[in-house]
Amino acid sequence: IFGPVMSVMIFKTLNEAIQRANNSRYGLAAGILTKDIATAHRASRALKAGTVWINTFHVIDPNVPFGGYKMSGIGRENGIHGLENYMQIKSVITSLPDAVWL
Question: What's this model's pTM, rounded to 2 decimal places?
Fold first, then answer.
């Protein structure tokens, strides 16, 4: 199945819900629907997904990195993390005569 797919399951504890959600080879995105924002943030830290939407779905901004965990892709698109794939970093170190730190 290629998504989006929504699984609706009954769970007794937050840990059980997180364990079920993370029990997958994939981790592109996850969604949390709740009235308790503290619980949503605890869950978002524990979920193995590249994007976690809280009380919304499929909100994508070009400034925010997008990409998955596990078998859901390599690297990130968008934002500064997406640009890093097109950049080369160079360090230049020069000895300066009479530098105060020498």
Answer: 0.72
